Amino acid sequence: MQTQKKHKPRFSFEFFPPKTDVGVEKLQVVREKLSAVNPSFFSVTYGAGGSTRDRTFDTVMQVQKQSGICTAPHLSCVGDTRAELRELLNRYKAEGINRIVALRGDLPSGMGASMGELRYASDLVSFIREETGDHFHIEVAAYPEKHPQASSMTNDLQAFKAKVDAGANSAITQYFFNVDAYKFFVDSCEKMGLDLPIVVGIMPITNYENLLRFSSSCGAEIPRWIRMRMEGFQGDTKSIALLGEEIVTNLCEELLALGAPGIHFYTMNQAEPTLAIWNNLGLSQK
Ligand code: FAD
Question: CA geometry: angle at 119 spanning 141 and 170, to 5°?
Fold first, then answer.
């Protein structure tokens, strides 16, 4: 964990682009509440295959203009052509956006097998560097518990290294509940000579059914003791949310004490669960 400790901790909040006018209004309220704690940046997800191309762009511009806080678009290459990616990069550059989260993406089911022209996130990072030089600070994804499609942890670490060698500046992890998985991942990166910040991605637990669904698709393990306790509440949403807040607060505390260089919150466009953890950690006072 030595290399991580030298990076100044940073804190960021992720949104998805709303689909409806009501969602847009709701996000404005959430964004206002979260702006008040002055995060390092916001980010906005991108539907692979370009399914949210305009909504992501509009949300990024709205959040950055209204908050005055740097806002990073996510961009995924699967299903998009080089020309489409180039056009988007140039639009963001022209608007003064200088941070981007570069991903391969997962095509939504039903979008067929159209793979686009770039296969892996490392190809996208290379493409962004070829097209725009050092303009963007590039974030990439990291998987302390292995990406579900990777044939082995070793191969996945090599894939992560390829993204860094292609020009990524920092990384955000998939969410996880096993501190050791993060520690071993970071130590393996150190052994490969990688010293970029590997910021922890944190998913506040609010709805247990949703957590089960997301976790099975993204490969995040929910430890047995958490499942047993959550299932013991038999759908009592208030108790689930309270225990979730305690578990995730403890997880963040442990990771920050270990030297994690910051937290990226998957807010799911809700302010309260993230702010509760933020306040429990006393982050505004630090
Ligand atoms: P890659 O790094 O390309 O890896 C994908 C798989 O390919 C891995 O199994 C890897 O081991 C393997 N691989 C990579 N390179 C090679 C190679 N050269 N040879 C063989 N195998 C290789 N998804 C979205 O659609 N939109 C979003 O906005 C979004 N935001 C995200 C934000 C964060 C912080 C994270 C952690 C994930 C996000 N995702 C998003 C999910 C992500 O797109 C998926 O996890 C996707 O399956 C992999 O994307 P990647 O960028 O990690 O891909």
Answer: 25
Return the best residue to mutate from 100, 103, 139 for the ligand 1 pocket (most ligand atoms within 8 A of CB): 103
For 17-76, how does the pLDDT look when each residue is reduced to its tens digit (9 = 90+)? 999 999 999 999 999 999 999 999 999 999 988 889 999 999 999 999 999 999 999 999
- 141: phi then psi, degrees, rounded to nearest 5: -90, 145
**Tokens 């047995």 map to which residue?**
224
Q: Residues with Cβ within 6 A of ligand 1?
A: 45-46, 48, 74, 76, 101, 103-106, 120-122, 141, 147, 149-150, 155-156, 159, 162-163, 172, 174, 201
Look up the pTM and report it: 0.97
Question: What distance in Å separates the CA atoms of residue 169 and residue 138, rounded to the nearest whole number?
Answer: 5
